[in-house]
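Researcher: Please translate sequence to structure tokens.
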Amino acid sequence: MSAILEIKAIKVEFNDFTFFVGAAIAKELFKVSVISRAEEDRESGFQRILGKTRANQIAEYFNNGNVIPGSIVLSSKNETPDYDNKKNILKIKIGSEVLLVIDGQHRLFGANLAEGNVYLPFCIFYGLNKQMEVQYFLDINGYQMGVPRTLRLELQKFIAEEDSEEFILKSLFDELESNPKSPLSGKMSRTKSVAGKISHVAFQNGLKPILNRIPLN
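Model: Translation complete:
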């Protein structure tokens, strides 16, 4: 008799789709999840190869007491869910029911490596075919836009510790950009790369080697 994983979940029916949302211990989800990687399965694989360094960084992020609120997206290979509507319990048979990871493999793997039990939000679909699974993977990952590096450096002002290298570089940038007597006044761009202007990226690339020299360091 197969062991059963019971997790709290809310059933959602939208158009012709049925899925469940909730949060569960990552180590338990990991036991019933699989990855379909293109490198390992040319015929039907579609996931990217796992970046072990990235997964370890995520594990350390969790170990430091942080949380990642974004849901991992999974697809059950069972056509019909075993769901208790009264108790809002989704039952998954360990060893027979498989959850295919559509999005969030690094978060799931990192959370599984982390110390203690990490809760991860999840969204589990039922009734998706291979074409739908691949389409969701492309939709989720194809339309994401990363934060520009120069904007990330601008936002360091909210988190950099005083007297840290990041704080000093940001203060120098602000002074040279805002002081009307500065030769760089009006020639710097805070949040994006602009032709003819100095961004945080170019500014830091130029100044970091100088700051790291004795006696400045």
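Researcher: Any highlights?
Model: The helical segments are 26-31, 52-63, 105-113, 130-142, 149-154, 165-178, 200-211.
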